Design the sequence.
């Protein structure tokens, strides 16, 4: 079919903020789609509220709006840019829901807008439980036996026809609250009753449990001519019962015979035709009974999904790009495979390797149990590629950056068998390590299979790792020959693992390996298993005979990516790394990317000249450096991950572009850092480093409580707390920080009610330029990543800003910063304190770049290559003429029971940006985009701690002026009364009815201002915040945020939200 | 694991690698081809078309699901051996009856792993499918290369004679239709018989041997099917005469793969050897009739030349390969002849073209049967 000529201007909707279940993969798919459509000659407009994305880089689309994804905003864009069609299939559920809303409101019809790549009917079939089940019935396929039920009697009657275990899922409760798995009728009666009670509409889904069944996914593409291809099959290591996003997976499927594979393939094609997906990618999940092969269709996603991104990286088949081309009328046989250049994409990739995906979790930040269930909780993932499962599996563990160098976790031998078995039965992130431990203890494969339900094929591979490990430990270093060592490497063992088993340093093993010429061979990912010549330089390492990657005879630079997304190190660094590749390519330098995160743009095969899909782990990075012999390595753009390698790389003689290792160390090492600040006469909060609890206590008493405690060398505030007394301090250190000689803790004076200012700046080794000074809305004590921030500063007095500038330049000069630096300041009673210096790109680089219209990463790269700031002549980044507000976004709803109060430990998963000439509007937009509802009128509940009782008064006064009605519990109520502010008294829990939680649950409260009340009232607080989370009512936990919210509400009452205009890059 | 012996694998162009023989041992010579199917080693090994060939699987992990005994395409393993990157120590599938290594050993077939199969594949891709040898006995490459070069070429041998049965077999088919056919056996896959059974009333499976003429003399049939089979179609003797006879008598002809090439040859079309053949389960093939693309199973080293088909006034191409635009199907413009190069019966491979092709086959036969 020919390309559509009747449409000219296409709006692509992005996925908005990163939340658990919807992460960077949609930036990958969005930017691929935009680039593809633009290349086909369309005028492409992008809307996305997430500034950290590559997709919203102004150079990607023709026009880019960073605005809340709402009907009102989209309608304005439709009018302004004369949009003909909308592509809603590459922006996750967010984009799809936005499209459905536009349809529902009649906006599509009003402007005669066509939705590309979907039809509403298919979405309804795929997403509606009943509709999907019925559709499957009609084509003779089975789905899990289940029924939506509203009465206890019906539940019992239905359950009598089912085999146990049975799953009960109440409708409309948060995170599956009130549901459960019933092993027998007695269980079932209890859970069914509880579920019906807790469901606000008395509705439960009763379903036969497929826990323990094998789980497969098929990734399917369909074009307008009804051609269908399967891009890949994926097999889950973890059987059903663990959300597929939380499962370890492999591709291609490993334990299906052709007969079974073809059956699932036929089903997949039948399903996509039945559901009727217009064009593009879909993902279909199957459960298969391992005992007899019985198949159940679990679900289907009628759009590009998380697994599409994984499968694209796993095969080299760019699903999102092709989906976009199909959406505008091309058919699969009309699109060329960019890798072979000679064959069409109407084929099915053949893999001559295996990929393993392992999710990355951050449970410790949420202080909830790490059990893996049907609710996805991972925040990122890694993919690795290898010749066999063991090699890829161990490599994936190296990629995860969880402190392991393979399938190897220290100290599991201390647990007793009972504990171990429990850890086999209950899935957690640690399960693979416990499986290995079980084998080491001599547990049989059959028994482990009984406990885990994991396929014997996977288990046997782990057993082989255990056997080879034993073989290595029984060998001696002197005995190692090339063949033996190569065989160890082929089982995925890292040099450090081998070294540990042979009692040798990693370096010694590495030297021996090089001496014996046991070097990795790099193989191409080519979609076709070498059947055709491949033109795309996308590589993975293995230990085979032939190496396919050669160092080119031209200037080349390696850029290290940031590894898996995690809280504190997210998509921002993918943006930075991708930008670096773009500018280096423009400068005619060969760019080589190393990264292992499939959810990224930096791992697209066309982002860099060469891509190594490898762990950002010293051994793997050094192997590539040895082969490529780059002119330099950039490691300040990937967050803390590459920066951690700086010392080792420099020791190995690698040229690091940017700030020198010695200066990086000076910023990171607390002692040297403080020495420098003293020398520069820059203030910092009093504090010290403690190697024991006693020392910590001494320091704290010396500087005075409250203090902020954290382990040294951290990212994203892991294990941080503000403590107010000695008991708290000791408690925290014992629980969280595990202090010892190797792991000291830092104790700093906590500056209460100080506010924080974040500075991003650039240096050329001598002088510096400030890119942005951001003021945090939340006060010090809330992690900078969890705080909303405003650019430019809106409440900081000029002389304070001057002090900040002055200190920034002094630090840049002293550290001879080349490239990025980020400095956090606390402003406390007219004084400026330095809290932290990061000699690298920070999380806020994309936000600042898009706020002030300067592609900062590109400037930074030029500086790293030796250009001077005076030569670059970029426009003044400080001059903006508008406000931008960055607002963090949390995924708390995925963690039932989590406390939502903000603290020094970062927990946000994503961010959005609001932009406007007016602060109030920028703030409102940021809240709207973050999904926080600011009410225009109604009831505001206020409950603040004693410190805040005075601070809250101006906020309360303004709320009254704006016509809101105030509600408060006794303490706050009295304070308001005394100040003459009218409020209604509302009982605490247990002090009368309806109490505050009931009032929130009934929907009578529209906004909550609740600052933490201290340990005693904790339970009350927690219930309030839980109820707010459940009812999706905005709960503000700091006074400064409340002030900003009132500014926003004031603005909201008087104005309409309008789009600010496209984001532009200023040129120079 | 039944065996663990060092093996030398040598191609006639001198490319070699050492691997591990995990099943049988000894020395043997064959043609080396690669197959890009990610599943289906059981079907491939038992497909008579692989007689005389050693199959290199580009999928690195083989043996994972064992041998089911249910998915065989003939009575036994036909391929000379397999070359893989890693043999799975464990067979995990509820249908698995025996592990692959044991089965290979039982049938005296080579299984070689620990090979850089990608490097090997690229050699075959660049230099074409070629002769080679596997040995656990002559580990000196220079010496073994001489032996490989001296070994007979597969193109010189009528391999089909080694895989066909020695008697006529009758398969009852679909009783709701009346058309009966002869299936000329050159090494037919079981699934082809199954698929023909769905479409036709009765199938007489007649081996193409010296008794062929006598065997079909008294049969009552409405059409003739020519099967797949191993080796070079250009050296098959004696079939042209029968094909011409059938055609003259207006007897419908249908065919798959080897049979399709034989029909073409009988009508003066040319068969060429492809550089490295088509062996896999992911080839896109376009059906001109409806413009649709089908993903197909493929296994052939030879093809009807495009040139000879284009210049023929009697034939038209019905299916084309979208990878290299070679002929994947053709029909005669005036006579009821319809043949297919790829494998609509799949086994292994995608089955989506199955219904379309076998329905076309049925119509080709049924139309004449008024």
Sequence:
């Amino acid at each position: 079919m020919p390309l559509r000529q009747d449409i000219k201007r296409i709006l692509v909707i992005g996925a908005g903020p990163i939340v658990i279940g919807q992460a960077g993969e949609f930036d990958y798919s969005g930017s691929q789609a935009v680039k593809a459509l633009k290349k086909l000659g369309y005028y492409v407009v992008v809307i996305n509220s997430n500034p950290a994305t590559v997709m919203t880089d102004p150079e990607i689309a023709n026009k880019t709006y960073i605005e809340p994804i709402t009907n009102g905003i989209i309608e304005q864009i439709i009018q302004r840019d004369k949009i003909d069609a909308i592509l809603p299939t590459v922006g996750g559920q967010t984009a799809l829901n936005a499209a459905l809303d536009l349809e529902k409101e009649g906006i599509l019809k009003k402007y005669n807008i066509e939705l590309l790549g979907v039809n509403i009917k298919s979405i309804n079939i795929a997403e509606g439980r009943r509709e999907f089940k019925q559709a499957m019935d009609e084509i003779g396929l089975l789905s899990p036996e289940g029924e939506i039920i509203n009465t206890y009697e019906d539940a019992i009657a239905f359950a009598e026809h089912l085999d146990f275990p049975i799953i009960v899922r109440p409708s409309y409760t948060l995170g599956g609250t009130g549901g459960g798995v019933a092993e027998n009728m007695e269980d079932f009666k209890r859970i069914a009753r509880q579920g019906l009670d807790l469901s606000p509409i008395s509705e439960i889904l009763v379903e036969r449990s497929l826990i323990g069944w094998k789980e497969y996914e098929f990734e399917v593409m369909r074009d307008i001519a009804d051609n269908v291809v399967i891009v890949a099959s994926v097999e889950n290591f973890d059987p059903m019962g663990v959300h597929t996003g939380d499962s370890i997976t492999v591709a291609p499927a490993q334990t299906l015979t052709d007969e079974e594979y073809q059956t699932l393939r036929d089903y997949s094609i039948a399903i996509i035709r039945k559901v009727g997906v217009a064009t593009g990618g879909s993902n279909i999940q199957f459960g298969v009974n391992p005992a007899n092969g019985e198949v159940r269709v679990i679900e289907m996603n009628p759009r590009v999904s998380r697994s599409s991104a994984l499968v694209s990286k796993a095969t080299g088949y760019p699903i999102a790009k092709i989906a976009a081309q199909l959406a505008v009328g091309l058919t699969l046989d009309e699109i060329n495979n960019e890798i072979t250049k000679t064959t069409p994409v109407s084929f099915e990739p053949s893999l001559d390797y295996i990929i393993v995906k392992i999710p990355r979790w951050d449970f410790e930040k949420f202080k909830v149990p790490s059990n893996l269930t049907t609710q996805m909780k991972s925040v990122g993932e890694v993919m690795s590629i290898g010749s066999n499962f063991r090699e890829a599996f161990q490599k994936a563990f190296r990629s995860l950056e969880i402190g392991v160098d393979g399938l190897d976790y220290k100290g599991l031998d201390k647990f007793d068998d009972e504990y171990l078995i429990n850890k086999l039965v209950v899935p957690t992130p640690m399960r693979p390590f416990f499986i290995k431990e079980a084998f080491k203890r001599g547990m049989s494969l059959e028994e482990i299979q009984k406990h885990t339900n994991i396929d014997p094929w996977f288990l046997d591979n782990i057993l082989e790792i255990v056997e080879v490990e034993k073989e290595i430990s029984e060998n001696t270093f002197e005995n190692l020959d090339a063949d033996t060592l190569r065989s160890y490497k082929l089982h995925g063992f890292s040099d450090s693992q081998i070294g540990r088993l042979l009692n040798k340093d990693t370096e010694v093993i590495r030297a021996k390996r090089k001496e014996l010429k046991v070097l990795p061979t790099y193989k191409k990912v080519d979609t076709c298993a070498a059947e055709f010549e491949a033109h795309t330089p996308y590589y993975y390492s293995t230990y085979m005979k032939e190496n396919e990657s050669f160092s080119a005879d031209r200037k080349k630079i390696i850029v290290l990516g940031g590894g898996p997304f995690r809280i504190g190190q997210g998509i921002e660094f993918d943006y930075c790394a991708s930008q670096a590749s773009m500018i280096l390519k423009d400068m005619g330098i060969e760019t080589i990317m190393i990264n292992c995160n499939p959810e990224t743009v930096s791992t697209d095969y066309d982002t860099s000249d060469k891509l190594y899909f490898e762990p950002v782990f010293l051994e793997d990075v050094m192997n590539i450096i040895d082969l490529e012999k780059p002119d330099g390595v950039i490691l300040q753009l990937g967050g803390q991950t590459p920066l951690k390698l700086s010392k080792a790389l420099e020791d190995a003689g690698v040229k690091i572009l940017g700030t020198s290792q010695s200066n990086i160390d000076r910023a990171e090492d607390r002692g040297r850092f403080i020495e420098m600040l003293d020398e520069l006469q820059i203030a910092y909060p009093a504090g010290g480093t403690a190697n024991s609890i006693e020392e910590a206590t001494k320091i704290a008493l010396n500087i005075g409580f409250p203090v902020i405690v954290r382990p040294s060398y951290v990212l994203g505030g892991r294990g941080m707390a503000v403590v107010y007394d000695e008991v708290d301090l000791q408690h925290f250190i014992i629980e969280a920080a595990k202090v010892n000689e190797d792991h000291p803790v830092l104790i700093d004076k906590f500056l209460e009610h100080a506010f924080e200012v974040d500075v991003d700046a650039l240096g050329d080794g001598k002088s510096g330029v400030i890119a942005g000074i951001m003021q945090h809305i939340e006060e010090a004590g809330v992690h900078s990543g969890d705080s909303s921030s405003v650019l430019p500063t809106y409440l900081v007095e000029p002389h304070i800003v001057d002090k900040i500038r002055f200190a920034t330049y002094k630090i840049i000069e002293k550290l001879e910063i080349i490239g990025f630096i980020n400095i956090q300041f606390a402003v406390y009673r007219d004084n400026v304190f330095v809290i932290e210096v990061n000699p690298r790109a920070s999380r806020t680089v994309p936000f600042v770049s898009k706020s002030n219209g300067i592609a900062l990463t590109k400037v930074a790269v030029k500086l790293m290559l030796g250009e001077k700031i005076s030569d670059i002549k970029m426009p003044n980044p400080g001059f903006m003429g508008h406000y931008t507000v960055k607002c963090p976004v949390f995924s708390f709803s995925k963690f039932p029971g989590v406390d939502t109060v903000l603290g020094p430990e970062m927990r946000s998963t994503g961010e959005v940006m609001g932009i406007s000439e007016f602060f109030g509007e920028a703030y409102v937009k940021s809240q709207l985009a973050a999904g926080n509802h600011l009410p225009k009128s109604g009831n505001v509940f206020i409950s603040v701690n004693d410190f805040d009782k005075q601070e809250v008064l101006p906020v309360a006064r303004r709320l009254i002026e704006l016509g809101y009605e105030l509600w408060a519990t006794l303490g706050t109520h009295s304070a308001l009364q005394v100040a003459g502010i009218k409020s209604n008294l509302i009982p605490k829990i247990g002090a009368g009815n309806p109490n505050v939680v009931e009032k929130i649950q009934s929907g009578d409260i529209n906004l909550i201002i609740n600052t933490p009340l201290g340990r005693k009232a904790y339970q009350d607080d927690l219930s309030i915040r839980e109820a707010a989370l459940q009812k999706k009512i905005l709960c503000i936990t700091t006074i400064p945020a409340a002030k900003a919210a009132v500014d926003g509400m004031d603005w909201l009452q008087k104005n309409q939200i309008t789009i600010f205009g496209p984001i532009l890059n200023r040129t120079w | 694991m039944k065996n663990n012996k060092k093996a030398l694998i040598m191609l006639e162009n001198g490319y070699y690698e050492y691997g591990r023989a995990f099943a049988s041992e000894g020395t043997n010579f064959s043609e080396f081809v690669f197959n890009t199917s990610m599943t289906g080693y059981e079907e491939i090994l038992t497909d008579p078309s692989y007689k005389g060939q050693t199959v290199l699987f580009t999928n690195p992990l083989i043996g994972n699901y064992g041998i089911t005994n249910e998915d065989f395409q003939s009575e036994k393993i036909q391929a000379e051996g397999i070359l893989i990157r890693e043999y799975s120590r464990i067979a995990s599938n509820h249908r698995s009856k025996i592990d692959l290594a044991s089965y290979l050993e039982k049938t005296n077939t080579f299984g070689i792993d620990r090979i850089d199969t990608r490097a090997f594949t690229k050699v075959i891709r660049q230099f074409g499918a070629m002769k080679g040898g596997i040995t656990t006995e002559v580990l000196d490459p220079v010496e073994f290369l001489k032996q490989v070069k001296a070994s007979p070429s597969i193109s010189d041998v009528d391999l089909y004679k080694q895989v066909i049965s020695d008697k006529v077999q009758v398969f009852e088919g679909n009783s709701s239709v009346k058309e009966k056919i002869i299936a000329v056996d050159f090494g037919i896959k079981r699934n082809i018989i199954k698929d023909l059974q769905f479409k036709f009333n009765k199938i007489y499976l007649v081996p193409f041997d010296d008794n062929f003429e006598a065997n079909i003399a008294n049969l009552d049939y409405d059409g003739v099917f020519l099967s797949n089979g191993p080796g070079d179609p250009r050296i098959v003797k004696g079939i042209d005469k029968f094909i011409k006879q059938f055609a003259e008598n207006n007897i419908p002809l249908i065919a798959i793969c080897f049979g399709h090439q034989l029909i073409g040859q009988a009508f003066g079309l040319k068969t060429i050897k492809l550089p490295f053949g088509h062996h896999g389960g992911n080839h896109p093939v376009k059906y001109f009739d409806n413009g649709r693309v089908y993903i197909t199973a493929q296994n052939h080293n030879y093809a009807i030349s495009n040139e000879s088909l284009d210049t023929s006034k009697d034939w038209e191409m019905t299916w084309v390969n979208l990878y290299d635009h070679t002929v994947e199907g053709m029909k005669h413009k005036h006579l009821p002849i319809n043949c297919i190069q790829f494998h609509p019966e799949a086994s292994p491979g995608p089955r989506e073209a199955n219904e379309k092709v076998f329905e076309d086959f049925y119509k080709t036969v049924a139309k004449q049967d008024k």
User: Anything to note?
Assistant: The mean pLDDT of chain B is 95. The domain at 160-367 of chain B is CATH 3.40.50.880 (Rossmann fold). Chain B has eleven helices and 19 strands.
